[in-house]
Amino acid sequence: MAPVIDTLSSLVALRTKTIELYPDLAPLRAAVRRGNWAAVSAHFDGFPARADRSTAVQVVAETAGSERFLQRVVDTHRDSSLARTLLGARYIVTGWNARGATRAKYVQADQWRVFHDHLRRADGLLADATSIDPSNAAAWGERVTAARGLSLGQDEGRRRYERAAEHCDAPYGAQRQLLQTLCPKWGGSVDAVLTFARQCAEAAKPGGLGAANVAAAHAEIALDDDDVEVARHLAAPHVREEVAAAAARSVLHPDFRPVHGWLGAHSVFAFTLFHAADHAGAAVHFAAMGNRVNSYPWSAHSGLWKPEFRQARRAVRAR
Predict the structure, then answer these.
(1) Overall number of domains in the chain
(2) Rounded to two decimals, what is the model's pTM?
(3) Average pLDDT in the 271-294 region?
């Protein structure tokens, strides 16, 4: 039966877009495409108080051409913190698209120019959003990303994250952004990224996503050294045990309930445990994802990450 399952899985395309991972957000994207601000606003109003809205913001920000609609809303709704958050997030996406995902040393001058122009626009809009509504955790989380891209420093990134966390009970989206900021590749350190990830795990409720930051931190450490194989760090017994324990506290805990971000958590656990040679541990996460997978951190490891993902999934099923 396993070979049949593997064959069928290989014929089904991997679903990697945010809207494919969380199809409950399809009505939100549809409202953006229609230019229906009332429906967009109502969707965000429907979230529980202090919920993590970062994935919903991401869906809007990834919608091609949405900046034209959102600019009209910003122009006509002078007191809308949400409109400025969404337009700012859109400019972050377009800026990063212009920069590309490559290392800084490979980014061309014209790419840097567009990148910084878009991020400066984004940061201004997001600053206005948090001025209008200081409790807008989603805007503060986007400002963490903008601060990283504009090289505003570790302290500013932390300050913005702390404001997001102040107004969100489980700020997984903002945590992921500050974790990137604290990585050595962005001027941080191994100690800083591990300390923060462990703090997120300790602060998270059982079954929450916060502990997945531990896996992400170890993945980043492993991926950061071009001269060392990824497995060398991840297969260290203490690392493998810490990642497995983090999984047990989050997506594998009896109190876990799927919320936006859960597929990203499974993805990073699957990556770290597979490369740690814990195939049995990784298999649980592959099974939970099926053909929906967050590209991170697979795409950071390989430009041909989809074949790598499929190969890893087959390998754990074969055991």
Answers:
(1) 2
(2) 0.93
(3) 97
Q: Do residues 54 and 74 both lie within one domain? A: yes
Q: Which tokens sit at 42? A: 């109502």
Across 72-81, 220-229, 250-259, 280-289, least confident range: 220-229
Q: What is the DSSP letter of 104?
A: G
Q: Do 294 and 203 lie in a common domain?
A: yes
Are 206 and 249 a contacting pair, CB within 8 Å?
A: yes
Q: Are residues 83 and 154 in the same domain?
A: yes
Give pLDDT tens digits for 174-198.
Answer: 999 999 999 998 999 999 999 999 9
Number of H helices, E strands in the chain: 19, 0
User: Nearest 5°: phi and psi at 60?
Assistant: -65, -45
CATH number assigned to the domain comprising residue 73: 1.25.40.10
Helix axis angle for 279-289 and 262-275, nearest 10°, is 150
Ranges of H-type helices in 133-255: 137-149, 154-166, 172-181, 190-203, 212-224, 230-234, 237-249
* One-letter identity of residue 198: R
Residue 106 DSSP symbol: G
